[in-house]
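Per reviewer request, we include the raw input and output of the structure prediction for the construct analysed in the revised manuscript.
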Amino acid sequence: MASSPAKHDIRAITSMFDLRADFVSAHAYGSGHINDTYCAWFDQAGLRVRYVVQRINHNVFKQPVQLMENVDRVTRHALATLKAEGSREAYRRTLTCIPALDGKPYATDAQGSVWRVYPFIDRARGYDELETNEQAYQAARAFGEFQKLAATLGGERLHETIPNFHNTPKRLEALEAAIAADSAGRAAEVAAEIAFARARAADCARITDLIAAGKIPERVTHNDTKLNNVLLDDVTAEGVCVIDLDTTMPGSALYDFGDMVRTAAPTTREDDPDPANIGVRLDRFEALVKGYLSTATFLNEHEIANLAFAGKLLTLECGIRFLTDYLQGDVYFKITRPTHNIDRCRNQFAFVKAIEDKMSEMEEIVKRRME
């Protein structure tokens, strides 16, 4: 969750927070592309410690204060729950917001940018690419634990900082609008992809319909479950802490699990220009199911019954988003070649078809894990 930051005076920024330590140095940190992220070293009563310092990208996150209110509520609750359970590593198993001098979980600089500070979680790291099924298991287990901790959060509903983020029918409506406008003159060349999306309109509404019918509850969800958003212990490889909480808000547990499947279970990367290369890694899917169900013990029967389908839905949704952006002239997703977005779309749609072909086997894997 880091970009290549512009030059910021991190000493001055961190002076707005109640760190009770002496600033030593700071450097740009991480491999993300949204927020400006630094690792800052401090001398704390003779001990060198470090913190993660971030400027929230308000061009992406239009309501940074609401975002931080969500993050603070969820992490405070997680910490209190872990402490109540007697966890010996409570502060390592959840992010915690260092308060600003005014007590808020963020500070605003002279330019109006919102900043936050987290303790640096040592002896653990995220992996941009999974290397083993065990890593998939541990990451899925950690996401299930994150949802379980958040499931008992009381009080009023969290802010919906990005409305309709995983509302697939709304994504389909946006696609239809892009087809009608055809602003880049590309609709004719992607007729097959348009037909593919339209043929699955009923799939798009399946989870939203179940939520509307009260069969699937709204839950606190992460909404960006790329598996590099889990820190794995350097020694034990155990999933330690879920990070990158900017999209934490109301949603469906199925959205989180479905995006894990979308990102971890394909046989090739999402922008492979040859859709023939993509298939479903059933071994990886089983690792995700095993890890997730080991901690997501709060799921109801309708959620469990749709775990395999969720992988299909979130992949379909992402393909629709890539197709929409291609029709609009590549205005949202970053591209490195003219066909990048349509390559991504075709790749995602090929994965949807692969999941459809393997759906019975995937559902059987879930069933076995529940027995």
